[in-house]
Sequence to fold (682 residues):
Amino acid sequence: MNQSLLFRLRHAMPLVASFFLLICLARPPEVGHCATDGVESVFSTFEPEGNIDALLDDLADLKKQKLYLNESSSEDLLQLPWLTFSDVSTIISTRTDTGPIATQAALAEIIGEEKAAWTLPYIYFSRDLQLHRKALRDQIEGSLYTRYFTEMPERAGIATGAYAGENYKLYNRLQLTIPHLKASVVQEKDVGEPDLDDFTSFSLNAYDFGVLKSAVIGNYTLNFGEGLLMGQNRYFSKGSDPAGSVRLNSRRLKPYSSSGEYGFLQGAAFSLRPGPFEVTVFTSSNRVDGIVYDDGLITSFDESGYHRTETELERRDGVTEKVDGANLLWNFGASGVRGRVGGSMIHYGYSEPLKTLVESGIERKDASSADLVGLEAVVTSGNAGIFFETVFSQKPDDSSWIAGASYEPLRGVSTVVAVRQYGEHYYSPFAGAFAERGDGASNEEGYYAGIDARLSRKVRVGAYYDWFRFPLLSPSSYPYPSEGHDMRLFASWKASSSIAWSLQLQHKKKEEAKKKEEAPSVAGTVNGYAPLPSLTDRVRLDSDIKLSRALSMRTRGEVKRVRQEFFSGDVSYNGWLVYEQLNYKNGRLSLKWRGTVFNTDDSDSQLYAYEDGLPMQFDLGTYNGRGKSMFFLASWKAAENLKIAARYEVTYYTDREVYSSGSDLRLTDSPASFHVGCLWSF
Fold:
């Protein structure tokens, strides 16, 4: 893009804001709900963990295959990320004790007006309506979704030839559905990759055939217990939901139709549900990007999915991963007590030895495969429940476990406590555990307590406290214990039918292993490394205002301070951002604009915020340095079955003349990107 066009776009920000202001003045404010869509609200407040695009795909499918509220299992209902385990438990106990939940108002009495409104597009209240809609769906349906993305200016690697491909990203997804059968094909090429079919994913899913709950051929994911052994769909990290983020809420077996190139299995799997039992059996043989050095050991797995340079292309699908296993579950219920108890066993193997196993004392010839066993249990009675998972690894010989309890002392008040003890040497390549540092369910201990309380129809508060300890701060550089704590407070206030406020406060203390030259005054130096205490304080305030039936706005202010403690004196890094987002929706047209101003001293104080993307896609904005940014998103429903969307984003830095470095260097202080997509349903 030439400089004159960039200059014109730079000055477009106030024009866009003026456009929205004129719309606002043309329409007087009307009374209405200020809450946005449930997905947008969740992403604006929760902390990211995994592949969010996969969650968006699941929710899009769920809108087509809605849940019958009065018969759906807890596993089904927990697919909605704003519902906590306490919410779902209350729904199930209410319909069991007092009969079917028949209206949105009745559901709102259980989980609150806001969550009930978010849940409505994904459920049925009436079985008659469910059967009628199902009859209408007994035909072939499908969708084709295409996205194109490019950057301005291009990266240095493309100009110099260090990247083998061109300056664009291409995504295509085709889905076809007939009763009880769904097929998905996904193709993606990233910026700088030479092959149009760099990543191709296929899954064929049969479901609800008598005792057959689900069967998948192709790519799929698995989630057992709390994710210590197998947890491939943990979307949000600790801190997202004070009373719910401890738990893993996802289906045990799911077809995989996302563009993420790591974190799934490939082969065949099926789940049978004969009576109160449920058995899941699976086998997988997948090619993954493993980093293998000259010693022939797999040091790690490359989860980025990039295949641009000669090294990345040589690494592509360089390691064979084989997995086999089964999970057995018994669902029971009697005399007001419900629950499930089960166990899992898997065997995995790689084409090369794993460095992680060799460093744990395993002989090299035996370090390419291992067995894992897990036990799980969930029991609920009335307003109380307990959960538990323990897992054992054969290589290394170690174990991990987590246990907790939830209780709802009053309607609208949810509490949870949990204890975790993850072994220093436990290893599962497929874990997705609740943790402070990483999700591998190893080398961590902790005590967690959280509460979420709906004090009234207008006020909601929540808080958690987590004490954690690492038996080995850094196994390779500082193999000694370290501990810390994390606490956070959440509060939201619906001031009126069109105005809402939300507040987050966080304080965290945590140590990091630093080289001696980076922390010269810290005592206890070992192997040239020392533990450096780091304290983080963060405040976030959001305001949502419904200006009219068509126009709404969100304002966010966030401040972060990171203080590192040296004996010679403390060093502080500060960061802040402010953004304004305007949303306009009228008929088939939807427009969104956001302008952000940010200022951070260092990467330790950088800030993050979700940004609206094209359909079934969100971007995680990272703000590091000084400057301002904006994006403009427009979507138009051209026909009943055709939606077109486009997004332009640009960031203006005042503390640098070029962006990034190496092959990713872009010769501008104002990197920009353009994204366009088309979704056709048939």
Remarks:
- The two ends are 36 Å apart (CA to CA).
- The longest helix spans residues 12-26.
- The chain is about 15% helix and 50% strand.
